[in-house]
Amino acid sequence: MRRIAVLVLLAGVLAAGCKRKHHPNPSATIEEESELASSISVAEPRDASQLLSGFYNLEQNAWRWSMKKFAVTLAPPLNGALRGATLELHCSLPDVIAAKMLGVSVTPTVGNVKLAPVRIDKAGDQVLKFDVPIEPLKQDAIVVQFELDKAIGPDSADSRELGLVVSHIGFVSK
Questions:
Q1: Domain range holding 130?
Q2: N or C, which end of the chain is more exposed by having fewer CB within 10 Å?
Q3: With contact defined as beta carbons under 8 Å apart, do 152 and 162 qualify?
């Protein structure tokens, strides 16, 4: 009898521990079903299904060029629907394009909420931070779109439209 009571108690504890909110990745296929993350690295194969549009192939196993417009899907951060969050874009403005791209403004839209733009005034690595209100963080899967006010057009040296070098995108809880 004591053994049954212990098993029932253990089953209750395990069931309570499994109440973590599940955020399935809507972009994943049945074969690669994965959990939707609130923060992604563009170099991680498990995060690739969260890159929706506007990214080129992975380079140096660490980063991707973006286009003028690019988008990802993210899960909301812990307590985001109660406190809001900060959206971080880890990117770089390489010296080779800095002369043409300095002063570029980056404007994200989270869900249907357009955020204040951030201007890039120096070359090199950047962490752009955007304040995100509570409202768009109430969804299980949030589309985050970025738009640059300028990009490098295709030319004879490179047939791609080049925006920023992106390595990481994610929400940070407040």
A1: 23-173
A2: N
A3: yes
Residue 109 lies in a domain: yes
Beta partners for residue 168, in sequence order: 41, 90
How many folded domains does the chain comprise?
1
CA distance 51 to 36: 11
Using CA of residue 6, residue 7, residue 13, residue 16, what is the dihedral sign? negative
Output the pTM of the full model.
Answer: 0.81
Any idea what the CATH number is for the domain that residue 165 is in? 2.60.120.260
- Among the listed residues 132, 78, 84, the one whose alpha carbon sits nearest the alpha carbon of residue 108: 132
Quick: pLDDT tens for 78-101. 999 999 999 999 999 999 899 999
Under-50 pLDDT residues of the chain: 1-25, 27-31
**CA-CA distance, 31 to 114, in Å (whole number)?**
34
Is 13 part of a structural domain of the chain?
no
Helices (H), the chain: 2-17, 80-83, 95-101
Q: Is 11 part of a structural domain of the chain?
A: no
Query: Could you tell me which of 51, 54, 48, 53 has the C-alpha nearest to residue 67?
Result: 54
